Automatic annotation (TrEMBL):
This is Uncharacterized protein. InterPro entries: DUF7373, DUF7373_C. PROSITE patterns: PROKAR_LIPOPROTEIN (PS51257). Residues 59-254, 259-401 form the DUF7373 domain. Pfam families: DUF7373, DUF7373_C. It comes from Nocardia aurantia.
Length: 407
């Protein structure tokens, strides 16, 4: 997958950088009693020129919309890195979209398929990428990637494994309990050892890559054991995925319970340059697009989050209004090392906002941000500057409150 440009990265930071840096659990005593703020008077808040009325999401359908929805369905049925091994808690690459298609195909370390993936894997339909690291710096610990690829049929899936595994001959490896899996070990130009594993289930291919830049001497056995656990877990969870026929992708619903229509859409400044990731992500899929899924999972559990709508902002559906307030209190700890609290938008009491202190180190994953709640929904909003942030926050609140008398 290719990195996005800076504009898109900042726009997607809210989608994919949900890092909750807490002392203790994500629902600790410091905010377990957070109370939902009172409803706001929308006539007194300034939303600038941003949209404040829901749109018909079906009118925004593109050729790729169905592929994104099917990819999300796959993502909701595959394990997180922490589901396989609790040590892989970091995902600093989270700003990259997880949807895999022929236009946004996967890339792999040390096996030379990036430039000709479509030629090596004809019949590839759609997939989902999962990432995990032992350390925030990938050069300081193992990196754990898992991709699920769907093909038109089992024959194309098998051919893709033969083609990809044969591009760069490596040292063969075996995975305990899975004699039919294809595995090899390669060494990159930076002297990292890479175990790549291909495992087929009908028309699905599960690819595991474990990159080890530090072990001296290198021993493939621990990586093979992790790969076995990954296949075990994937085999159990992927059974929940029921494939949508390819000719039905165009009829997959784009919205769920009108959540996406009430999420601030992308505009010309925030529209992604690659595959548009907007959609409604069920809980498991939503956890995949976080920087620290271990901590966010605890916050989701506490608040009863079941869906996250993703566009230029993102909206969480929680158990109730009190749970939404607790979730905001947890997520407001995000980027605690680089964020400083600032005043909220005018006439929006209870809204929590942050930016990086002037003169401090710049972290593009932590642009100015605000958190707002409405009823059982919590929203997180990013922008390039504070004035725009305030207007975007007001617009997001109006979208959530739209159609409710007196709001």
């Amino acid at each position: 997958m290719n990195p996005l440009n800076r504009v898109t990265r900042v726009a997607l930071a809210g989608i994919t950088a949900v890092t909750v840096l807490l002392t203790g659990t994500a629902c600790g005593d410091d905010h377990k009693d957070a109370a939902a703020p009172p409803a706001l008077d929308i006539s007194k808040i300034d939303s600038g020129n941003f949209p404040v009325a829901p749109v018909d999401i079906e009118k925004t359908r593109t050729e790729s919309s169905g592929y994104v929805r099917e990819s999300i369905r796959i993502g909701n049925a595959v394990p997180l890195a922490i589901d396989v091994d609790s040590k892989y808690v970091f995902d600093p690459k989270a700003y990259i979209t997880r949807t895999l298609t022929v236009k946004s195909h996967p890339s792999y370390t040390g096996i030379g398929v990036d430039d000709n993936f479509n030629a090596l894997a004809p019949g590839f339909v759609v997939g989902w990428a999962t990432l995990g690291q032992r350390r925030t710096d990938p050069t300081m610990g193992r990196v754990f990637d898992m991709d699920t690829l769907r093909f038109t049929d089992a024959d194309h899936a098998a051919a893709a494994i033969r083609n990809m595994s044969g591009v760069v001959p490596g040292r063969p490896a075996t995975i305990p309990g899975y004699p039919t899996a294809t595995a090899n070990v390669t060494t990159t130009i930076l002297d990292s050892n890479v175990l790549t594993v291909w495992y087929q289930r009908n028309d699905l291919v599960f690819i595991v890559q474990l990159i080890d830049p530090i072990s001296i001497p290198f021993d493939v056995a621990p990586l093979a054991d992790i790969s076995k656990k990954a296949i075990d877990k994937w085999d159990a969870t992927i059974a929940a995925y029921t494939e949508t026929p390819l000719d039905k992708f165009g009829s997959l619903p784009l919205d769920t319970d009108e959540m996406l229509s009430r999420t601030l859409p992308f505009d010309k400044n925030t529209k992604p340059s690659g595959v548009d990731p907007q959609g409604v992500y069920p809980r498991q899929a939503a956890l995949h697009i976080t920087n620290r899924p271990d901590l966010v999972k605890a916050a989701f559990d506490d608040a009863g989050v079941d869906s996250v709508a993703v566009a230029s902002t993102y909206v969480y559906r929680t158990r109730d209004a009190a749970a939404a307030a607790r979730l905001v209190a947890a997520l407001a700890k995000e980027h605690d090392d680089v964020w400083a609290p600032i005043d909220g938008p005018p006439n929006m009491p209870g809204v929590r906002c942050f930016k990086q202190p002037q003169g401090g180190d710049t972290d593009w994953t932590a642009p100015p941000a605000c958190f707002v709640t409405y009823d059982r929904f919590a929203a997180k909003i990013y922008a390039f500057n504070v004035q725009e942030l305030y207007q975007r926050t007001a617009a997001q609140y109006k979208l959530l409150a739209y159609g409710h008398p007196g709001k």
